[in-house]
Amino acid sequence: MGEVLPLRRPDHEPVREAPATDRPEPLWRELVGRELRTERLDRGERLADVAERAGVSTQYLSEVERGLKDPSSEILSAVAGALDLTVRQLSVRAARTPAPYGALCLAA
User: Fold this and answer.
1) What are the C-alpha distances in Å from 11 to residues 5, 14, 66?
2) Is the pTM of this model over 0.85?
3) b or e along 61-80 (b: 16 or more beta carbons within 10 Å of the residue's beta carbon)?
4) What's the pLDDT tens digit per position in 45-70?
5) Which end is more exposed in the chain, N or C (fewer Cβ atoms within 10 Å of the end residue's Cβ)?
6) CA 47, 50, 52 angle in degrees (round to 5)?
7) Domain limits of the chain?
């Protein structure tokens, strides 16, 4: 996956300076990755142990947790299951991220 680039504004449209506190809305994979990492750390588990139970490499799980990889539903289910979570529980947690990013709609 490449980086997300903003669309350019037409030359005649004024550029609005964003306040320093404005951050771009996180991607779904970043929210899910954060939840996976939080759960793993809360349980006091090592990356290697969860990856082994899920059947994925430690490097891949690390990339998922950091929001760099967009795992398939099968991989997401395996990783969530290795943490005793369902994909639904994981999705609800990610969707409950504090404002302004709490309400998400996903297209299938």
Assistant:
1) 18, 8, 36
2) no
3) bbbbbebebbbeeebbbbbb
4) 999 999 999 999 999 999 999 999 99
5) C
6) 105
7) 28-95
